[in-house]
Amino acid sequence: MAKQEDKFKSVISHAKEYGYVFQSSEIYDGLSAVYDYAQNGVELKKNIREYWWKAMVQMNENIVGLDSAIFMHPKVWKASGHVDAFSDPLIDNKDSKKRYRADVLIEDYVAKLDAKIEKEVKKATKRFGDAFDKVEFLATNGRVLGYKEKGAAILKRMGQSLEKEDLADVKALIEELEIACPLSGSKNWTDVKQFNLMFGTKLGASAESAMDLYLRPETAQGIFVNFLNVQKSGRMKIPFGIAQTGKAFRNEIVARQFIFRMREFEQMEMQYFIKPGTQKEWYEYWKETRMKWHMSLGMGEENYRFHDHDKLAHYADAAADIEFRFPFGFKELEGIHSRTDFDLKAHEEHSGKKLQYFDHEENKSYAPYVLETSIGLDRMFLAVFSNSLQEEELENGTTRTVLKLPSVLAPTKAAILPLVKKDGLPEIARKIMGDLKWDFNVAYDEKDAVGRRYRRADANGTPFCITVDHDTLNDDSVTIRHRDTMEQQRVKISELKDIISKEVSMKNWLLKM
Fold this sequence. Notes:
- By secondary structure, the chain is of the alpha+beta class.
- Helix content is 40%, strand content 24%.
- The strands form 7 sheets. Strands 3-9-10-16-13-12-11 form a 7-stranded mixed β-sheet. Strands 20-19-21-22-23 form a 5-stranded mixed β-sheet, with helices on both faces.
- A hairpin with a 5-residue loop joins strand 22 and strand 23 (488-492).
- The protein starts with a helix and ends with a helix.
C-alpha cells in the first residue's frame, strides 16, 4: 500500500513538473478538486479525445456527433431523475470531522481484499516458477476463493441496500467491517445521508426574474433531447448512435485522488439507439468493442477488468464498468449501460412532445431503447499517464525516469536536437522542424549536453529524438533515437516523416482493435 501511495505521489509531482496538470488558481492556494491542464496536458487530453472520436464516430457510418449546450432547461433534469435521485451516500466521522462517501469506504475495503489476492498470486508465482498456472490458482486456491466470496458478498449487500435506500444497513455494514476513518483511525461514525450533487445557478438579467438552472451533471441528456432533431436531419435509421464530448459538473463533497474525481470534468459518451428487445446483444457488442479500444493502446491486459453492477440505476436493465488498475487500485474508467427506453419516454412525458422513431420495416412507431458507453476523459488521462510513468534501471547502473505514453497519444512526437549550437547545425535542425511540424507536434531543444536532452524528452513522453550532427552536413542523415528502447538509427532526413508516421498514426493503432 505504501508503494502505491509513493507511485501516486510521483504521478502528481511529475504531472506538474513536466507541464501536464496544475492546481487551478494555485497562486491563491487553489480550489479543491479543480485542476488546469498545462501545455503538455492539453495536448495529451486532445489526443485522447481525438483517438476516441475517430474510433467512435469517424469509423462508424451510423454514429454522428453532437455538441449540446451546458445550460439546459431545468425540466430536463426533473425528467431525467437527477433532481430527485442524483445523490451520493455520505457519512461523517465524529472524531476527525471528515466526510466520506459511504460506498467508497466499503469499496476501498474490498480493494484491500483484492490486494491480498494479488499478494497470494505473487507468493505462488515465486514458489512454483514457470510451472505456475495463474488461472487455475485463482479458480482453486482456498484462501483466494475466500477473499473473492467475501468481497462479492460485501458489494452485493451494499448494492442491494443502496437500491432500497436502506442507509441504516449501509452504516451497519461499515460498522460490521470495522472500517476506520483513513485520517484518524476512528470508527465513530454518523448516520449515512444522501447529498444531491448538482450545481445550481441562475439565468436572467435580474435576481427577481432569473430562472433557476443547473450546470449539467452529465452530457447524455443533451443527446436525448436532440434525438429526433438528429434522426430526422440526418435521416438516421435504427440502429444509430449520437456521440458527444464535453464538460460536466458535480458538487463532489468527497473529491479526491487528483484528477480521478473532480468537480469539473469532461465526458466522452455515445448513446446508441436500438430496437426494443435487441438490447442484450448490443450490450455484449459494445462491452467487447470498447474493451478492444482500450486494448489497442497496449497498456496491459492485466490492468483491465469488467465489473458488473450490483446496484442498477433506475433507468438500466444491465450495467458494467471497465475498471483500470490505477496506482490506488482498480477503479471505474468506463461504463456500458443498457438504459432501456427510460430517457426518451421520460422526456416525452415532461415535454409533451413525441420522441418516437417510425420504423418503416415494421410500419410502426416506438421509443427506441438505448445502449450507452460513457468514459471520463480525465480518468482516461490519469490511466494513461500513471501507467506510462516508469523508473528504469539501465545497464550502466544508472536510472532514468521515462513516460512511456502510447506514441499515438504523446503530446510531442519528436524533439529536434542540434548536437552543438554552431557550425550550421541549428539551421538544419530548424529546417527539419519546419518541415515536420506540418504533420506532427514537434519541439526544438539545444540546451545542455545531448544526453541530458534525451533524458528530458524521455521524462516528457516524447517518442523520438532526432539529433543533427556534423555528419549531417555531408550525408543529409540524422540519428533518430527511440524513447522506449533507446535504440539509435542513422536515417536520411527525407525518411523521417514516414518513420514517425508509422509509429504515431491513429490508423495503425486502431487497426489493432
